[in-house]
Sequence to fold (794 residues):
Amino acid sequence: MFAILKKEINSFFASPIGYLVIAIFLLLNGLFLWLFKGEFNILDYGFADLSSFFLLAPWILIFLIPAVTMRSFSDEKKQGTLELLLTKPISHTNIVLGKYFGAFVLILIALLPTLLYVYTVYRLGNPVGNLDVGSTLGSYFGLLFLIASYTAIGVFCSTLSDNQIVAFISAVFLCFLFYIGFEGISDFTSNLFIEQLGMSYHFKSMSRGVLDTQNILYFLSVTIFFIVLTARGIKTKPFSKKELLPLLALPIGLLLLNILSASAHKRFDLTEDNRYTLSKASKQIINAVESPILVDVFLNGDDFPSEFKRLQRETKQLLEEFSAENNNINFNFINPLEDEATRERNIQQLTQRGLTPMQLSVQESGKSSQAIIFPWALASYNDVTITIPLVKNKIGASQQDLVTNSVQHLEYAFADGFSKLTKPKQKKIAVLKGNNQLEDKYIANFIKKINEYYFIAPFTLDSVSKNAQKTLNDLNEFDLIISAKPTEAFTENEKLVLDQFTMNGGKSLWLIDNVVMEKDSLFNASGTNLAVSRDLNLNDFFFKYGVRINPVMVSTLYSAPITLAIGEGSDSQFQNLRWPYSPLASSNSKHPIVNNLNLVKFDFANQIDTLKNNINKTILLESAPLTKLEGTPKEISLDVVTQEQNPKLFNKGNQTLAVLLEGKFTSVYNNRIKPFKLLEEKNKSIPTKMIVIADGDVIKNDVIKNAPQELGFDRWTGQTYGNKEFLLNAVNYLLDDNGLINIRSKEIAVAFLDQQKIAAQKTKWQLINIALPLGLLALFGFTFNYFRKKKYAV
Fold:
């Protein structure tokens, strides 16, 4: 076998045809990947990976491998040496394997110069070395299995005729059929089983660095099947009936083995961030789906910037993972702007459904243009349809940052959407009333949002004074309470009910203002008002749980602007001016509530201290470092917008504005006289959670003409802050039993190329990747033939 393998390699490189075939392969790869404009161009693609190469390579190999294998047996037949070869003391199988591995090694030699592509992307990464080596290595493994199957098909086709052209065309046809033909037939028949017979289905995940034993078994089955057919094809004896049963049993056995492997297979995600491994929570959600979910993705088009082409690809790959886990997940990519005749109507209809379009800047050949996209998906299940946002925006984010944030958010967005579709509401939320909390119209937008997930009901504590035990029993029917900016002090009876609700495992979300000051109160003739502390009789309540909300105001240089009319009479104009009392809060934490979160806007926020006790405390949001604290009473004036602020005075660093408490809470009334007797008194809670936010305005939406507006949207600046997402994440975390919210903490790094380096060194890297592989091939050919001539010189 090894002698035949060596002979194949020597004879291939002894002929100029061999070098020509490899040169064409390298040249085509180089031109498409580094020079020609199009979807395969790595430099235009802008991402530090080789997905373009692994997308292109199967198509070029469809022609390269048949060109290498076409002479394997057809040339032997034509020259009449096949019969002589078969008389040698070597089995037919070893002859075939010798020819097969000879061709396989030749393809590997042709593939070696493509490692220059890896080096180039490594050097051009931003920063240098920003390349997912595991993913790249896994993709090469997938390509090797594809090459193995192509080679087996090519060697088999060379036994069909003594004409090399016939062998070449037959191999190209069969490789094309197996790679994409079955997928085309599947699209026509809507039969997944037919699609699984094709190589493309199995190569997709492998090409992005995910190795699955099921896919590996498929490629090995195809390879073995065609090698066995080749071994039979070179026999000179006519076909006998005795051989029929084994030849029929082989494909049937391989097919059954592949079917069985679908229920017991191992998957290896070699990507550094395991981006193609669905979380446990996602799998639990979709495995429970028993009827089809249809997902229509509108992120489709030809004029996308490269960043959004990446988002499009990542969305498709994620949905393929969902579909592979449960074939009830079906998806389509739709371009609503493709048909000029229906373009405007589609835009209007989608916008009316809340699917607002995005306008993007497209840079191409030094020219800038605008493109409109709809970064949304619609998921339908049992006649219910919901919208799924595909873009995760952040204030001040570039298009690269936008795509990075969006890719990281995709799994949660789809898993959350599928959960809403398939899981009935179970948890109940009580919105507290009776202590002069915010009116319904000011929290309407957020309540409408969480109503998609949970049952919502108002709950008043007024009945505590008449029947405290019944009030507590009724409150314990709920899983979570929300108190949105109470302004009237809580009685001891009310506090005991709330305390015992916590002791029984109830969750709570508190939005507290410990300072009396409203922005609207400044819009008077003097433009001033006095900020004073507010006593809600909750100091001991929160102190026992481990936090203290101080009656001070957080002032910072990193804040949302205030919009004021500047000027006199008809000459006045609205201007956005710096307003230090509207801190923009963020977090460096990777906690699922705040990970990848947009800035959250506060108004006259207070500062929170955390106290030592047995409760776990996580700071969720804090102000920017340039912060100062202003005590009360304090006169607040709109004149501050015209005054130059001294940064040296803002020296208090980051101040805590929102904190999560988790653990077994000790009762506020432990070892204290209770204001009323309880049927069952608890001084220690079961494990539970609580979130305290030092500003009630975080949940407050604007109201225009008595209509609630979008929470977090500033109509004067057009900015959308992260208030609604933060609060939704907070509620979902407090009530999450299946770990779905934890998907938000999954980190996915999108690696980019250094565009400045590309602009400065583009020609250099194009020459390296196009000319250098050809130069290396020429050097190899010269060296090989020099030693060959020297060896056989007389």
